[in-house]
């Protein structure tokens, strides 16, 4: 372990990036005790000592239409962040996900002589493949979570390392469902459905009421079903509590305890996003639903080449889990898809078998591999 001081800048834009960033920080701290972290981080990263220039929540926006409304603020914040980072002179800048924000940031900082790493590949293999040219210009190194992504970058002469996914390392291969249910006050004699309508405010606005109405319908058809919902942040909890007002629906709200929710449940109604990977790793059957602004969806349908949107289906290379989008995501349709997954059935067992196989493929020691790749890039290998 080196005792020479090290300054590393990390910028994340949402909750999933905070998870990856925190794991990477811990791996880097294990190799370099005298490392300083600056940039933009979420609560997990802040708890590890990140000095954040502003709240990660300010970057948590998704969708073409939604971004336009926030564009002036995002551009202003990026301009100031570029100036702050160039002045701070970190040994390396690591942009985690948030490509529309981070790639421009990385390009400017790299031109100033600072090494840059992008962690989590944009979906260049699915749409806007010409972005790989910008990535090649902006990044000294790409770190990918999935092996098929690394192959794509190798073909386009972008330095790349496949590291696996830190969640696959963190999630145990076996969990004690009964113990967690007892801790949460849930019965082992009735099925448990987890509701996960997203970590962003816009997602919860579009999906929260739909998920609660679906849960009500499920309870009508299968009385006694227990409900729980992990809230990504205090802001999301307040938003969800407001949506629950006036409903006679017993939902156990948890503060960020996604792992407990997924351990305790039998199935999940979930928004498309990184949370679907976490549900896969906990081997919980799921129904994926998503709604976005109408124009955004219309445009993406014409640009995206992949037949799937959810990570479980992309990783499996097949329609393993139901994906129900836009106007097709009705209460009746979602309830009909969820109900069979709350009890043993062939569809459920097939999901669980493939989930276990994918878990092992992604279990690579991601944070340690990523930390080693970063340190090698800047000539500071332990």
Description:
With 382 residues, the protein is α/β, with parallel strands linked by helices. It has two domains: 6-164 and 364-377, 3-Layer(aba) Sandwich (Rossmann fold), CATH 3.40.50; 177-362, Glycogen Phosphorylase B (Rossmann fold, 3-Layer(aba) Sandwich), CATH 3.40.50. It contains 17 helices and 13 strands. The strands form two sheets. The chain has a seven-stranded parallel β-sheet with strand order 3-2-1-4-5-6-7, with helices on both faces. α10 links the parallel β9 and β10.
Question: How would you summarize the topology of this molecule?
Answer:
Elements: E1 6-12, H1 15-31, E2 35-40, H2 43-47, E3 51-52, H3 64-88, E4 92-96, H4 99-111, E5 115-119, H5 131-138, E6 141-144, H6 147-155, E7 160-162, H7 166-170, H8 177-184, E8 192-196, H9 201-221, E9 226-231, H10 234-244, E10 251-255, H11 258-264, E11 267-271, H12 274-281, E12 286-290, H13 294-303, H14 311-316, E13 323-325, H15 331-338, H16 346-362, H17 366-377
Parallel strand pairs: 1-2, 1-4, 2-3, 4-5, 5-6, 6-7, 8-9, 8-11, 9-10, 11-12, 12-13
Helix pairs in contact: 1-17, 3-4, 4-5, 9-10, 9-15
Pfam family, one: LpxB
EC number: 2.4.1.182
Function: Condensation of UDP-2,3-diacylglucosamine and 2,3-diacylglucosamine-1-phosphate to form lipid A disaccharide, a precursor of lipid A, a phosphorylated glycolipid that anchors the lipopolysaccharide to the outer membrane of the cell.
